[in-house]
Amino acid sequence: MSKKIVVAICGASGSIYGIRILKALLEKPVEVFLTLSEAGKQVLAHETGYNGEKIEIFLKNQGLRIHEKAVLNIYDVKNLFAPPASGSFRHNGMVIAPCSMKTLGAIASGIADDLIHRAADVCLKEKKPLVLLTRETPLNIIHIENMKKAALAGATIMPPCPGFYTRPKTIMEIIDNTAARVLDQLDIETDTIRWGDKDL
User: Fold this and answer.
1) Binding site membership for FMN: which residues?
2) Is 198 contained in some domain?
3) What residue numbers does the annotated binding site for dimethylallyl phosphate cover?
4) Given CB 3.0 to 4.6 Å as the disulfide criterion, which of 10, 42, 71, 151 pairs with 100?
5) What is the distance between the alpha carbons of residues 131 and 97, in angstroms, rounded to a whole number?
6) Angle between helices 141-153 and 101-109 in degrees, nearest 10
7) Residue ranges for the binding site?
8) Considering its fold, how many domains does the chain have in total?
């Protein structure tokens, strides 16, 4: 049975992280449940040139080769009837990339007023992996306390901090290193270079 992963893209800078994670997932036999916040769509357009076309077309233009057994489901952020909004929906984890401080605050406070917040809340209560690719710097004490609360509730706080021991030659290689580390958290195999590999 293929894995089912929930992916959310929020309005923090760094939407390319969400796109490259999507790409990495859909090149495997994985079923993805995707939602974008309204701010996430705006930032994606500003940072990548996304013009509102179908996300599948955009991903293919980014070099995606969809696995024959991969499935992409897309839901409006206001749709609280979508499968990830329910604790009875069985899946293998969720990643929010990038995760804005607004979304982090909502998760830390137990606020579930849209699909992203609700799906994250469900992950915590159902003890499923929840990876938050938090994107902000510098951090104030409110951000840090919210990260602590989310972590204590079961989330994995994962700022995009790539390893440079892989000697990346492009920005995309740096981003893909982080994407691979996210897939590690979701127990999905990747071919990323790892510390100790002979290729280093």
Assistant:
1) 11-13, 37, 100-103, 135
2) no
3) 165, 181
4) 10
5) 8
6) 50
7) 11-13, 37, 100-103, 135, 165, 181
8) 1
Question: How many Cα atoms are found within 13 Å in the side-chain-facing hemisphere of 85?
Answer: 15
CA distance 114 to 32: 18
Rounded CA-CA distance 182/76 in Å is 23
Residue 9 Cα distances to 15, 100, 174, angstroms: 7, 9, 19
Q: Residue 54 belongs to a domain with what CATH number? A: 3.40.50.1950
Q: What is the pLDDT of residues 154-188, one digit of tens each?
A: 999 999 998 888 889 999 999 999 999 999 999 99
Q: 15 is in which domain, residue-wise?
A: 3-185
Residue 1 in this model has a pLDDT that exceeds 70: no
**pLDDT for res 129:** 98
Percentage with pLDDT > 70 across the chain: 98
